Fold this sequence. Notes:
Layout lengths: L1 H26 L10 H6 L3 H23 L2 H7 L3 H13 L5 H21 L10 H23 L4 H29 L3 H5 L2 H23 L2 H24 L9 H19 L25
Helix pairs in contact: 1-3, 1-4, 1-5, 3-8, 4-11, 6-12, 7-8, 8-10, 8-11, 11-12
Amino acid sequence: MLLCVLLALLTSASNATAAVLQRRAASQASSSKSMHLSLIAELARRKVWLAGIGMVIVAALFQAAALATGPVALVQPIFIIELPLALLLASLVMRRRIPRRIWIAVAAVTVGLGTGLAVAQPGGGTGQAPNSLWLLALIATGAFELVVISAAMRVRGEPRAALLGLAAACGYALTATLLKEAMAALDRGPAAFFSSWQLYGTAVAGLGALFLLQNALQAGTLVASQPMLTVGDALISISFGVVLYGESVRTGWWLPLELFCLALIVVGCVEIAKSDLAIAPDGSQPGAQLSRPAADAR
């Protein structure tokens, strides 16, 4: 279990680095290209964005190893720490001082995450789920994404960023869940791994999550998208782990404390998102956020 946590932390560090590299590229993209594939084409011409994608690939390797050694319900919530790490890294790169209130916010996220995981004690489960259960999960996920993206297309600015952040979070959670089963197939040999439909589902879901994230970054500020992205990924991943793999988390009398930890994380993320470091140094568009790059395509 300790190895799983270490690998998840390395994934978070890699994604935080990618976030710092990608934020300027996303903020400078034309708003007229929102929700179009041409947005990705434009970003791909920027070296800093490509460097960020390189770090996403490194993170993908760490994440695959983490999911192969631990439950989804433990691995995915650890990625909440990416935002504080990205903020700290950005402060070093930009040589900017972090205010006291932001340090308090970083502490709130860290303490909330650590305490929440210690109380919930996610664990157990298997590495495989029956195809019938997968079919139901995919139908439910598709319906959820359709509703959220349709709602996002009817609004602009912060509401769109929040909704697309939630849609991206669902994509990340699905990608991680698919990746876990693909890694379980690897135990049966290369033939089983490459013949697993979950492997190719991981690629499709990951690319979809990447597309949604870049649009969330472009649509509005981090204050709108980050809480949805961060908390949404963790909660949806836990749901996938419990439903598909039979993983467990403690509830009952522990639930109030878990909800308090969740509130600490949300408040901390919102406060971090208000930092000047969450805005592009050139003051360009408000979409220049410190956010997770595509960690599950990751």
